[in-house]
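Progress note, sequence design subtask.
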């Protein structure tokens, strides 16, 4: 999904077919060539095993948005024929759609109602969301506005929620480990606020799509701009380069980013009956978990955390109890240890995620999986660094990387290394 000021200038038909129409995105000072359009996006999603999720232009009329759904999902008709002519005879069957992005005004709410209603009438199986709540950069975390629910709630399946927890600034602050890690319980607080807001409005059936999240807000000094500028203007070019350089300093993405990402995912898993979609933003470069450069790719610390969760956890969330102290910082306190337990459908194989947020100290905690405590050696994967500020870059791409290890439990107690994420595997012992 793209940010509002890009989406609101985007017209999907200019990004399909052989003749693409580039356009100037003056608010961000760049030319969008439209070489990566709907067909390429869906192909990319299928290639990586992801489900495509498309965001409509929040200012477009209902018909333009319906035509886009038809291009993707119809079997016949004008726009199905257009898709076929572009080399895709079968429908894309795009299931997830958002009506606009980061808009909250009355006109937008009415457009959501009209668009979502029309989409549901023609394609009842698609899932629709819209802008619901945005609590970016340390601001108060709001609930969902009543007018949106009263006007459009009956036609929605999700509500979209965004947050970036560390404020942006033109001085490109790095933030120390503790300032960053002190934010790690705020995602769950936000989920609770939005969930209660939905329940209070009798809209508890709506799921939460946390479709923009990241520890760090994007740096973009001088942008967004409010007036048209020459894209070759030296001042515009300088600001664009400053934006790129500031966001892509790999030294910013430390163990704090990895442990925050793991904490965010734990919060989603503990609230998985409400949160059924989560999309980090951006995916590549800027604040993304992957940094792509002319000679290769750097997997940043939070990439490894997300990879571990994707590939090592089991399919079901299970109860877990832990004993842990508080980690105190001037901006607040968080639990030193965070944990989530998962188990397969047969309740035979377990994978437990354990986060030690302490920057310097080993921590002993006690874990209870219900009817028994763990005892003995268990295979595990650990992600940590030599210091809390450890990061990966072009010269040292594997400074922080997952490693296989063993974890020793004694009557449920286990010692966790500082600033670490560990996923421990337990087989056949806790039916």
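Output:
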């Amino acid at each position: 999904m793209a940010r509002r000021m890009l989406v609101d200038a985007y017209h999907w038909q200019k990004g399909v077919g052989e003749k693409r129409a580039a356009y100037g995105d003056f608010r961000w000072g760049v030319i969008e060539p439209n070489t990566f359009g709907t067909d390429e996006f869906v192909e990319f999603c299928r290639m990586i095993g992801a489900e495509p999720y498309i965001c409509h232009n929040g200012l477009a009329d209902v018909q333009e948005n319906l035509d886009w759904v038809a291009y993707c999902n119809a079997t016949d008709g004008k726009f199905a024929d257009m898709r076929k002519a572009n080399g895709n005879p079968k429908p894309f069957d795009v299931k997830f759609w958002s009506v606009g992005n980061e808009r909250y005004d009355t006109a937008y709410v009415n457009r959501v109602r009209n668009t979502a209603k029309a989409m549901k009438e023609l394609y009842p199986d698609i899932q629709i969301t819209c802008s619901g709540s945005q609590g970016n950069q340390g601001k108060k975390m709001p609930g969902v506005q009543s007018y949106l629910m009263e006007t459009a709630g009956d036609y929605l399946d999700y509500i979209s929620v965004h947050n970036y927890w560390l404020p942006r600034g033109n001085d490109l602050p790095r933030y120390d480990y503790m300032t960053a890690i002190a934010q790690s319980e705020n995602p769950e607080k936000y989920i609770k606020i939005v969930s209660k807001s939905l329940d209070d409005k009798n809209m508890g059936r709506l799921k939460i799509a946390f479709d923009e999240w990241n520890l760090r807000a994007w740096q973009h000094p001088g942008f967004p701009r409010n007036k048209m500028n020459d894209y070759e203007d030296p001042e515009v070019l300088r600001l664009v380069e400053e934006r790129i350089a500031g966001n892509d300093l790999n030294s910013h993405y430390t163990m704090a980013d990895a442990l925050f990402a793991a904490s965010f995912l734990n919060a989603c898993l503990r609230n998985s009956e409400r949160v059924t979609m989560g999309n980090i933003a951006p995916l590549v470069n800027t604040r993304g978990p992957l940094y792509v450069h002319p000679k290769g790719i750097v997997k940043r610390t939070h990439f490894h955390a997300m990879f571990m969760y994707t590939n090592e956890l089991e399919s079901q969330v299970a109860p877990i109890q832990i004993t842990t102290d508080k980690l105190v910082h001037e901006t607040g306190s968080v639990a030193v240890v965070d944990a989530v337990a998962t188990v397969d459908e047969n309740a035979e194989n377990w994978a437990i995620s354990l986060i030690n947020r302490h920057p310097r100290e080993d921590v002993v905690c006690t874990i209870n999986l219900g009817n028994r405590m763990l005892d003995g050696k268990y295979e595990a994967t650990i992600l940590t660094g030599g210091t809390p500020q450890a990061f990966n870059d072009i010269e040292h791409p594997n400074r922080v990387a997952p490693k296989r290890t063993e974890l020793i439990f004694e009557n449920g107690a286990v010692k966790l290394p500082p600033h670490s994420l560990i996923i421990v595997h337990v087989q056949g012992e806790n039916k």
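The chain has two domains: 4-312, 316-427. Work on this subtask will continue into the next period as scheduled.
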